[in-house]
Design goal:
mainly alpha
């Protein structure tokens, strides 16, 4: 008997192929669960970023309105003179 057939018999007799398949399945399930968790965290971060952008746009609009009102008031003061 050569070394390769001895190893093959050992693997077959001890059902190592079955065990490695089960371990592979468990690793796959753990990886998939981790991926879903990361997707959930990414979605939450995206929602937070979207809200921050909306708040920034509202603030910029307020600044723009204030600048326009200031300009109008300045022009009205010039008209009065």
């Amino acid at each position: 008997m050569d070394t390769n057939s001895t190893i093959a018999m050992f693997i077959e007799n001890n059902h190592l192929g079955d065990y490695s398949s089960i371990i592979g399945l468990l690793i796959t399930l753990i990886g998939f669960t981790f991926t879903l968790y990361q997707l959930y965290k990414t979605k939450q971060a995206s929602e937070v970023a979207t809200e921050a952008v909306k708040a920034m746009r509202r603030d910029l609009n307020k600044v723009d309105v204030i600048a326009n009102l200031s300009s109008v008031l300045t022009e009205m003061e010039e008209i009065k003179r």
